[in-house]
Amino acid sequence: MAATEDVTESRLLLTEYDRIKEEQKTRIGFRDNLLYFTLAASTTVTAIAVQSGLAQLQLAVPVICLVLGWTYLVNDEKISAVGCYIRDRLGPRLAELSGARGAVFGWEIYHRDDASRSMRKRLQTAVDLFTFLALPMICITAFWCSPAVQPLLMIVSLAQTVALAVLGWQFLRYAER
Asked: What DSSP state is assigned to residue 111?
């Protein structure tokens, strides 16, 4: 009986908060490392393509950027969703249960009111678009300008271009948050 008395809604919500903040922290680290890995992988493939003279290898860069860019975007969305959940659901419920007069988990609201936040979000979106869209489009363009263009590879590069446009649209769509 004593064990059930220790389980309160407030404790459950605080435990949930700890767990989702840990998930958010893990996702932030993973997301940020995806940028570095994308740049390293793209640079490596480009260097190999240039050194070997095989321009068609440049078409590997869009694949790398599409897969890692989508993974980056999904993680970024989940990171934002955790913050939104804490601000809109978890914090208000804990404030209600505790009788707190102000917001619970104030950092979740405070850091969003920074005057420079909007500029930082725009700059981060520009970095994301450069990393996951501009770099692979440069590689596709380099391929198009090379003598290695063949019909099947041209179709592949056009499909990659469409996929990159969709990814770019998704980055812009999620940048509003």
From this structure: G
Structure tokens at 65: 């950027």
Q: Which of 86, 89, 120 is nearest to 106 (CA)?
A: 86
Between CA 156 and CA 163, with CA 157 as vertex, the angle to 5 degrees is 90
Please check whether residue 105 is in contact with residue 91, taking contact to mean a CB–CB distance below 8 angstroms: yes
Which tens digit of pLDDT belongs to each residue from 142-167? 999 999 899 999 999 999 999 999 99
Q: Long-range contacts made by residues 138-141, C-beta under 8 angstroms, separation at least 24?
A: 139/42, 139/46, 139/49, 139/58, 139/59, 139/61, 139/62, 140/58, 140/59, 140/62
pLDDT at 105: 80
Rg of the chain over Cα atoms, rounded to whole angstroms, equals 22
Name the pLDDT band for 1 (thresholds 50, 70, 90).
very low
Q: What is the pLDDT of residue 111?
A: 73
CB 138 within 8 A of CB 49: no
> Which of the 8 DSSP states describes residue 145?
T
